[in-house]
Amino acid sequence: MRQKIIRGIALASALFLGCNSGVAMARDIQLSLPVDCRVGTVCMIQNYVDRDPGPGVQDYSCGRLSYDGHKGTDFRLPDASWLDRGVRVLAAAPGKVLGVRNNVRDHAPGAYDRKKNKGRECGNGVVIDHGDGWQTQYCHMRLGSVRVRKGDQVNRHQALGLIGLTGKTEFPHLHMSLRLRGKVVDPFLGARAKPGCGVIGRPMWRPEALVDLAYRPSGILAAGFTDQTPKLRQVVSGRHRNDRLDRSADKLLFWVLIFGLQPGDEEVHSIIAPDGKVMARHQGRPAKEHKARWFSYSGKRARGAWPAGTYRGEYQLLRTTGGRKRVVLKTTAQVRVY
Asked: What are phi and psi of 60, to 5 degrees?
């Protein structure tokens, strides 16, 4: 099995407005989900606010789903093919629109141009003022999709635009940040939480939103079959998810994209032939270090024409906890060979 690490996927949202720092006691606000999709099934939280004040990385639960200096919450789509479905960005709370950008072009996954986006790292987005010093900011929206203007009053759940691929991003997602008088607030802990991770806090999400926002240290992003060696950018672009392949295909490969690989994790890929027999199985070596995103694949080269029928790929991620090895992630995909 060949494996590739997703490297250097970073997000740094530029602010539309300058604000004075310093947090004072203020009326707390409650936030609704800022995306019109079920978090944990279609949308996933890829990154949380970085709670480590130094060069290290820790999310609010002391996990590693963040990167150094990250100032918001990233709600990502599985791949760029989902952009065509028009997943809406929603106002997390009522307020007044303070700033809008709507003229940044979308780019392909992995094709972020630092020079062209200098000063516009947020891409297309919206800043909303909620009173008492509270603001939310929404970044990386699709070109021309922003539906509100500066000065507009917006309601909770009101559509602001669509998730896109603009600004400093390598994959399709919404970056939402929360600030109180200019200071970043982690919505999973609130403004009064002590510094660091694993501390007592007061989530600022509404109760119905918390149901979907349960912390997931690892998750499946996408899986599929291909007859060509898959590349990361192609997978994130939505390619290599074939539902049909020709019997003359040179290869039959099963790939999986996950987040939250942890040290000691072991991957198992299996391909089951139409007759029910396992035609390929590979168990990788234990991971040596944490990887926020991980892409892997395995399979076989053809020896003549493939037998016609439906092939199934099965994936398991094994993790040792409490001295026991157990399956923490699993998924399947299938392809019809004709």
From this structure: -65, -25
